[in-house]
Amino acid sequence: MTHANIQLDENGHLKHFLSIYGLDRGLLLSILDHARSFAGVGDRAVKKVPLLRGKTIVNLFFEPSTRTRTTFELAAKRLSADVLNINISTSATKKGESLFDTLQTLEAMHCDMFVVRHANSGAAHFIAGKVAPHISVINGGDGRHSHPTQAMLDMFTIQQHKPDFTRLKVAIVGDILHSRVARSEIHALATLGAEEIRVIGPKTLIPTDIEAMGPRVFHNLEQGLEDVDVVIMLRLQNERMCSALLPSEHEYFHLYGLTEKKLANARADAIVMHPGPINRGIEIDSSVADGRQSVILQQVSHGIAVRMAVMAMTMGSLADTPTLESRDEV
Amino acid sequence: MTHANIQLDENGHLKHFLSIYGLDRGLLLSILDHARSFAGVGDRAVKKVPLLRGKTIVNLFFEPSTRTRTTFELAAKRLSADVLNINISTSATKKGESLFDTLQTLEAMHCDMFVVRHANSGAAHFIAGKVAPHISVINGGDGRHSHPTQAMLDMFTIQQHKPDFTRLKVAIVGDILHSRVARSEIHALATLGAEEIRVIGPKTLIPTDIEAMGPRVFHNLEQGLEDVDVVIMLRLQNERMCSALLPSEHEYFHLYGLTEKKLANARADAIVMHPGPINRGIEIDSSVADGRQSVILQQVSHGIAVRMAVMAMTMGSLADTPTLESRDEV
Amino acid sequence: MTHANIQLDENGHLKHFLSIYGLDRGLLLSILDHARSFAGVGDRAVKKVPLLRGKTIVNLFFEPSTRTRTTFELAAKRLSADVLNINISTSATKKGESLFDTLQTLEAMHCDMFVVRHANSGAAHFIAGKVAPHISVINGGDGRHSHPTQAMLDMFTIQQHKPDFTRLKVAIVGDILHSRVARSEIHALATLGAEEIRVIGPKTLIPTDIEAMGPRVFHNLEQGLEDVDVVIMLRLQNERMCSALLPSEHEYFHLYGLTEKKLANARADAIVMHPGPINRGIEIDSSVADGRQSVILQQVSHGIAVRMAVMAMTMGSLADTPTLESRDEV
């Protein structure tokens, strides 16, 4: 069994959602389909469906992230689940309890799902490998490795504007080296058949082996943007600035910050994305972030819908999902 | 459009609740009427009504206040809303996100209401001016400026004991200068037509231009209390003691602390109020705080009802409210 | 009226749950009976019953404990109550509010139940003596005094495996001196008629007057375990190590750590318990903690059921409970 198969149950249904890697096109399209049906819930007067009523979802956060925790908490509540927020760094580990004992304890409390956020790559996989059979694990971001719900909400946002992935050129711009988002997006775009994936950034922030994953590498933003349909800007982690991998913020913006002028190199109907929070004036100019091509706030809305979809799917609360075959005519 | 009009929608209904200033008597009476209907909910076996089911209310606290946060959280839950508690000082701003981006992100998550607490005067107004049309903002206290739900729960408490505001003499005692509560109460009492409003305190703690707002100023507690129907004691912020604005706590209590003896100057049926938390033995003697004229705990109970009323009204969840005209015969 | 009677209302029903001391066998059996009916809720698809819908339960924690707070929060949510988590050390007391004022304020907000966790012995009793008649108080652990829900979940776990308490030899091992758990368990076992209760530990960690409470004292683990049906290991509080009451951790494990070899002195079908979190390799060997005789994780599951039972009973939400007489034939 490969690293990725742990995500599927014996019938090939999604059991855990840990990484895009290892999931096939049919499954990703299923997630997008279900997300579409949940996207309307946020606009209703009563923004709730009873799918996970009486289930207990634990936000198990080993590194703090108000934004990610908030989106998962909202998604869970809109599915009518009960939510427990547990910040591990400030609780059990103080008393010296091992991670494994913490997990077993939460399982014994009949919790149904762990949303795991951890600074170490592979933490969510590790936990999924340890939990009892009735528990689902969702990766809310692990180290540099993976952030699959972010990738899928980006795919959902792209699909809303450009339904046919096979005709898309997509550029991902910025600190590819440290970005779990970039890694997950490249896998998702490749699986969904994107025509061309590009990564754009300074040499120090692009992994040397990235081309093996498929993308074309550019070190010049203007050239890299030429003719693309989708521009995904990455957040510049401020802490990288100290690590000598980067020149000054000013210099970075000059070379890799997205301005209207540089964006003009892309297709006229290109959309601009960013996972947030935005560093205005560092990786993106405000006129672009707030401009007509920006879909950044749509990404946030779609994040709730995608997380609702993944939560409901892994809990087996949705009817059977279409297979790759039945989807291929789409 | 005046500063205050942002609080009303095009039909003159309450859209945001930011300050008492700018709201007319009819609207304040409406709030009190609705609060009366919610006051019974706390005594029921099932303390919940489904008015805001499926709505998401965000407690957006830029300065900590367990008590205020708790009352808004309870009010929201008793209206069946989902509640998110977000402490901004410890979250997004760490990552350098701007306030505006935080707001837009929460809006994109389809949140319906922000309860804002902020150390800076005007913060809630600023936010109300920026949010999307479907969002309501409630001021949970901003700097020295305004604390309108506190003022309205005080008005509700007064009305329960003394229904006719036009025949009331009300004294507000203590640190008027730094008190957002005092400012809001003066506006509310004036709008509701109180016969006389007095402020009592040391010269250093009373703004020099206060008489322009209407109240009579007293520096002697005994004289100021003479013949009043309502005594509102303010909390002495301990941090003021260090700022050379005040003599010692002992001296303050001697001059401005409310004792039974001093209270005897007021009318025999006068009620004593305090927004809490109480500094026993500093601004008020325990025998008064716990005495027969004290309505301090009633204020707390009414706080939930008033907040439920304001939340339901701003969300448009209540039937149309009586106008000033139809109320005038009351 | 004795210290304990405060726990019962005028009809002898459970009103507060503060300590095992003072409750009779019939009442303890009632708790176990009700817990049994709640134990199944955790296995249902919808893990919720509507018994406390619309009630407000406050977790009033004066010392932090994520695990205990979590179990009470889950129990409350599965009874459909609304839950407020209040960490007192970080809130009201900062502003100098007295405990009594905090309690009165929460009462005025129409809260229905306080779950109290406090570092001082007697805190929950003190609070139960002060609250308004409609409020129930549950002791979530107070100083060295009492931890009655932990004791009852242990009794429930024992009963699942060994239904007849009157034929049981039970050993409690470790730091008896500082353990509120041990104290509550001794009372519960004595009330339920256990044949023999033993305490095992170093002289420095066993109170000199313990035999007056009933138990036999052993300072040798092998001897103390001989022929027992139940072994309850206590958590070694790391902070005791500094206090010169104990030799090194290594030495402690050598003398009082439970290994498979030492456990062989107990009956072959003896069960091993621990309140958690476990210090593996200090008070218990991993092979025992995870071994076939361990029921440690069952204790966690039963903790939710027992807390649901106690919450529902004190709130008067259950039908009348069987009396001691009607139970005696069991």
Instruction: Determine the strand fraction of chain A and express it as a percent band.
Output: 5-15%
Total domain count of chain A? 2
Low-confidence stretches of chain A: 90-94, 321-330
Total beta strands of chain A:
9
- Structural class label of chain A: alpha/beta
Report the average pLDDT across residues of chain A.
Answer: 89
**Residues in helices of chain A, as a percent range:** 25-40%
Largest sheet of chain A: 5 strands, parallel
What gyration radius of chain A follows from the Cα positions, in whole Å?
20 Å
Description:
The structure is a homotrimer of 330-residue chains. By secondary structure, the first copy, chain A, is α/β, with parallel strands linked by helices. Chain A folds into two domains: 5-146 and 301-322, Aspartate/ornithine carbamoyltransferase (Rossmann fold), CATH 3.40.50; 148-296, Rossmann fold. Helices cover 36% and strands 14% of the residues of chain A. Chain A is built from 13 helices and nine strands. Chain A has a five-stranded parallel β-sheet. A four-stranded parallel β-sheet of chain A has the order 2-1-3-4. In chain A, helix 1 crosses helix 12 (296-314), helix 2 (66-78) crosses helix 12 (296-314) and helix 5 crosses helix 12 (296-314). Chain A is globular and about 55 Å long. The interface between A and B is medium-sized, with 29 and 22 residues.
